[in-house]
Fold this protein.
Amino acid sequence: MYIFPGYVKFYQKETAIYLTSELLQNKVKITDPALQREFLSMVEAGGCQGLCTALTQFLHEQEMLVDEDEINSAFKQAIGLLDENLLLTIMPTDACNFRCKYCYEAHEPQWMSKDTIERIKEYIASQVLHFKYVVINWFGGEPTLCKDVVLEVSNFVQSLCSGTEIQYISNMTTNGYLLDCNNLLEYYRAGISGYQITLDGWNHDCNRPHISGKGTLDTITKNLNAISSLPQTYQFHITLRHNILAGDKDFSWYDYLYKLFGKDSRFSISVNPVNDWGGDSVQELSLVTKREAGLVASHIDYADKIGMKVIRGDSGPFSKICYASYPYGFVFRSSGKIEKCTVCLDHPKNQIGYVDRDRGVIIDASANALWTHTELKQECYTCPDILRCCNLRCGRLTIVEGNTTARCHHIKRGL
């Protein structure tokens, strides 16, 4: 049986039918009415039994009509690409200068030791030449509380990759309170060009107060205004995350953001519902329920309408693969623990290694493989998310919470 794999998309426009492959980035245009009827008949039947016509043979040559063995081969090639990425999340501290109501972290005053930092640098130096992409994500706690550590490691990795064909990418998740213009320029020179900063609408000061109890929105927006005034030659990118609660239908927040940053292409918006990732204070909040499934979409639609750049993060190959599913994706905790997921921190099944003062970085390959192993299910072959997902969505749900169906979000397709 030959089928149209999920990574092949097709649509009608005017008098033609177009097929595109996300795998090979090729396109086919069918204009002949007889061939269009034959193609639609194959779509209705879910494929064809053999390559007995000129159309089926041509589509097979274009790798748009394939059998399961050929899909498995393409899938293995795609999965092999994950091995090209060294994807490290570094949490230099568990401490934070905010006390956000929905935060799941304990924020103990734990700081990464000098020995741990040196062992991490040694590990990166020993591994870097094996990869095409070296991605360093800074997380916390609040990473800007450890500015010296961030700059030390970032400059070190940047120097390792300089003069090679390795692409060094570095991002930071920060509350933005200490990210003034001068600090951003220092981070930028060290190769950190992507930032995620949460601005929680008109309720920001209530939901994301400083540890002292005072509001934080004014300080962050002043920082961002100064950063936005930098010349466009500085090619950083800042995603403004907006976490919404149940019943939030006040879209005027986006008008405010557009007035501040709408004309700066380096700024974009990400809209997300507040989730219960743990902790006690989140229980006091009204979370978005399934009955309000369209609430996030309505926010995105409004932001789109007024011209804000919106990050959806669900298009393109690998876009729905969890970072914890990468074979060389590790989270270095300030304590020296090595984990896979930044949500289920300290869970026994999340820890896959540790940093030893004498022996360096120790990884338990078997524990790591639980997060990275994948196999195609029968429904994966025709799922439109086959290359976005590769059956490697949220490992936390399957490994930690035991939800065996959590990784599958099969979506019916249609023309």
